[in-house]
Design brief:
Two copies of one chain form a homodimer.
Chain A lengths: L1 E5 L3 H10 L5 E5 L12 E3 L6 H9 L3 E4 L6 H8 L8 H8 L1 H10 L7 E4 L2 H11 L3 E5 L9 E4 L5 H8 L4 E5 L5 E9 L5 E3 L3 E6 L2 E7 L6 H18 L3 E10 L2 E8 L9 H4 L4 H10 L11 E8 L5 H5 L4 E5 L9 E9 L2 H14 L11
């Protein structure tokens, strides 16, 4: 099929990499000066709100998806009048608003950190009173990779934090001393079938994902059940079609839902080699109406992001089971330039390879130790 | 790296599919009106002998390879004066000439069917006398997918066969009543290391590969040793860099070398999902000087070519472990439009899935039964 994609970053690029072998062709709408996805399709460079560009995208494609969750909902609605857009504007609008997300979780009975909307300084004071400190003040919209967040530990910090972020609607959330972050990546087909990947353990630093392990080590059956149940309820309620990621905090034997991404997700990159069907292929299968492929893991995988600068790729490639992925982006501090997936038949084989890999990736060193 | 490719068919396309994730960019030189590889790179449409086009290709790339063995050796030599071309013109020239191939095998002590060059009708009569009938008369050059070959069973057929093919240099080969065809696909790095994929069992019909199974069933250790030894000698002697395929006939417990392809090979397509590192990725690792990845199989695979028309892809995708690959080519009888790789953890799981797949692929039905 001819598939349009709103956004042309690395997620679009990997959709293209998965889709070209399936015979699909791609048109990407990407306003930035670089479009990593352009290696696998046509690039329309225009703002997401550009009506003429949206019309061109719709006219050249049969179905449209998005790879960036800050695409304006209005752009999706404009295209949806002409072509099917999957996942729908509902999934996008929900994921764009932390309050809508949290209310969705709460409405479905999914545990989530205590939260309160904050629209003025008085709201913040009252919310801090009810939730207690420490707490996290977050913008409701446009947050990603840890931006737009501030941890509040003392009441004296409230005014400055509100001044820094308060130009826009906010949310105060309880600070959760979590054991670890786990994400659930799953694909839902048009007919409602869901393929759940095994839960993934994620380590962040500076708000950016550094390392994922999958299947997540030390998963009890109870945790596994919660992970699938929470993600399944969300997918079904949104009538989501395509891949969705649910980020959770593990606290003891409970999972608290943190946020959703209505798209393929960085913590699911390991699935390209580490699962029977990668998340990018399953997203395309879902939106094009083809039965989903198996989401079972093939052995044990780790995924390390390459951030800011690229390591020596020949040295990387010499590590058994290492699969480098480069995004074709110019290096810049803090920028995701690529990732490496490591696959092994057992955790005992995986960990020493991971240590070797992390020595080549300076930005990631120190992230391997687990709580 | 910026990689130039002589030829832009499905093999070029799959090189691009493997190379884009590694951060490579591609320029394909392809004279035909369709260029399946253009989905993953730039397409220069010009004849292989076009000096200006070769100059453009060389100027836009850092290294050049080929995906079609009937590229003129002169074109490779022209580029080699400007840029490294890997594999070299030697590999290409040898593979283009059945007599050179056979002499290479014989010189290395690799068993091969008896052969004689045929340049005139008298040569043919004498060769038929020495080799005996049945025998196969083949053009020395430009043969592929069974074209340019004729089986001779009676002396009375010699004159007509020579008249049909004799405008060009020929070769008469003994007709070998083989048990099966096995191929060996292997990648050789710049430094001489070789990664051998497990031997592959191939079934042809009408001269076109229909079905491959890998690792080939019922391989004795002795056969496996011969397969690696023969391919290894050829790779080392040619100082080949990149992937090479050796096609052999199994006759009892012996392998007779039939021909080589100095490139990625149809019988190696299963490696994309069925091996730890696919042949396309290992070809790129070899020519770009990156250590080779493991060529170990992941479970058991079968590969079915999609020829002439495409089956129902949703039905295909519903078969567990099925990975369709489409080449973006217009359907035409006899044309390779795509392939499907089937993966399973055991032959017992693989075979019923293969039966289900073959029912969806009419052109391939009947090819599954093994001698």
């Amino acid at each position: 099929m001819r598939i349009g994609v709103l956004g042309g970053g690395q997620l679009g690029r990997m959709l293209g990499e998965a889709g070209v072998p399936l015979g699909h062709t791609f048109v990407f709408l990407e306003p930035a000066e670089e479009c990593p996805a352009a290696s696998t399709g046509e690039w329309i460079r225009a703002p997401f709100g550009d009506a003429a560009a949206l019309e061109i995208l719709a006219s050249r494609t049969e179905i449209v998806t998005y790879e960036f969750e800050n695409v304006p909902v209005g752009a999706v609605e404009t295209i949806a009048a002409r072509r099917p857009v999957l996942p729908s504007a509902t999934s996008l609008a929900t994921a764009q608003d932390r309050l809508a997300e949290k209310r969705l979780f709460a409405g479905l009975g999914i545990p989530t950190p205590a939260f309160e909307p904050v629209d003025c300084a008085e709201d913040l004071a009252a919310a801090a009173e009810r939730i207690g400190l420490p707490a996290v003040l977050k913008t409701r919209r446009m947050g990603y990779d840890g931006r737009g967040q501030q941890v509040l530990r003392e009441r004296s910090e409230l005014a400055a934090a509100f001044a820094a972020l308060g130009e826009q609607p906010l949310l105060l959330e309880a600070f959760v001393p979590f054991d670890r972050e786990l994400s659930v990546v799953a694909a839902r087909a048009r007919g409602g079938e869901i393929a759940f990947y095994p839960p993934i353990e994620n380590l962040h630093r500076g708000g950016i994902l550094r390392l994922s392990r999958a299947p997540a080590p030390a998963m009890s059956a109870a945790l596994e059940t919660q992970a699938r149940a929470h993600a399944g309820k969300i997918l079904a309620t949104l009538e989501h079609v395509g891949v969705l990621a649910l980020e959770t905090f593990q606290v003891g034997d409970r999972l608290l839902a943190n946020e959703i991404a209505p798209r393929v997700h960085n913590s699911g990159h390991w699935t390209i080699e580490g699962a029977r069907t990668g998340q990018f292929e399953n997203h395309l299968r879902a939106i094009t109406g083809v039965p989903l492929g198996s989401s079972d893991a093939r052995g044990h995988s780790a995924m390390v992001n390459l951030i800011g600068e690229l390591p020596d790729l020949a040295a990387l490639a010499a590590i058994p089971g290492a699969y480098p992925h480069l995004y074709g982006k110019r290096p810049r501090p803090g920028r995701k330039l690529g990732h490496v997936t490591l696959c092994a038949d057992s955790p005992a084989l995986l960990e020493p390879r991971l240590e070797a890999l992390l020595q080549l990736v300076p930005e990631a060193s120190g992230v391997s130790s687990r709580a």
